[in-house]
Design a protein that fits this description.
The protein has about 260 residues and is mostly helical. The chain has one domain: MetI-like fold, CATH 1.10.3720.10. The chain is built from ten helices and two strands; from the N terminus they run αααααββααααα. Strands 1-2 form a two-stranded antiparallel ribbon. A hairpin with a 3-residue loop joins β1 and β2. The longest helix is centred in the first third of the chain and has 34 residues. The chain is elongated and about 85 Å long.
């Protein structure tokens, strides 16, 4: 294995440029699908955490119909199972390594589910790509949940009261008034999450997803050269992340100008 940097080694990896192009496409698709899945999951989790679903509320009322002032029954009456499940999900996924989650999803969950064995675009193995998207999407959803929840809670509560006075239901209020404003506030954070996912997606090569790092591994095995393929991968990730982050910053400034009075 040649571990010394040599310019001449780039000529050895040039014939494998197609692998890096394919890896670039896989990485972009992986990131896009992950953000979509993560956002949908995060929205559900955020609404669960903000819900007021207390099925044991009646335990907080004594036999005379008065609210209990304390005790175990009052504490049980305040238990919200939706909030508990969403909070547990978020804390567990935010407190464990991504690679462990990917292995559990791929070797655990999808070992019991037979996925169709076909190739997207002629080279992306669906039975490896899909578990990678699911694992990253679940992880991203845990982080986006807090972003979305903070965005919703940042909206003035007076707007909800105004919506109720106009006869709008809670669902209509959330869909037409709260979410559009919240999304405007959290859009830069969601876009930044996309940049983070581009970099984190490199870990999926461990389950056989043909991303950029998979191309590096294939070139290393064929040419016994390691430094130069890593430098190529670094350049590709930089060309993906740096312009994207600058574009996000530009739109963030444009959106902040619109908020000034």
């Amino acid at each position: 294995m040649d571990q010394l940097f040599k310019l001449s080694n780039f000529s050895k990896i040039a014939p494998y440029a197609q692998l890096f192009r394919q890896g670039l496409l896989v990485t972009v698709l992986l990131s896009l699908f992950t953000v979509v899945i993560g956002f949908c999951l995060a929205l559900i989790l955020a609404l669960m955490r903000m819900s007021n679903f207390r099925p044991l509320r009646f335990l907080g009322i004594d036999k005379d119909g008065h609210q209990r002032e304390g005790g175990a029954l009052l504490a049980i009456s305040k238990f919200n199972p939706l909030d508990f499940l969403a909070t547990a999900y978020v804390e567990i996924l935010r407190s464990t390594p991504v690679i462990v989650q990917i292995f559990i999803i791929y070797f655990g969950v999808f070992s019991m589910i037979e996925l169709p064995n076909f190739q997207l675009f002629g080279f992306i193995k669906f039975n490896r790509f899909f578990p990678g998207v699911v694992a990253l999407g679940m992880n991203s959803g845990a982080y986006l949940c807090e972003i979305i929840r903070a965005g919703i809670q940042s909206i003035d509560g007076g707007q909800t009261e105004a919506a109720r006075s106009l006869g709008l239901s809670q669902t209509q209020n959330l869909r037409h008034i709260i979410l559009p404003q919240a999304l405007k506030n959290i859009l830069p954070a969601i876009a930044n999450e996309f940049v983070v996912i581009i970099k984190e997606s490199a870990i999926t090569y461990t389950i056989g997803v043909q991303d950029i790092m998979s191309a590096v591994n294939a070139v290393k095995g064929a040419t016994f050269v390691i430094i130069e393929p890593l430098l190529v991968a670094t350049a590709i990730y930089f060309c993906l992340c740096f312009p994207t982050s600058k574009l996000i910053a530009y739109f963030e400034r444009r959106m902040s100008h619109g908020d000034k009075r």
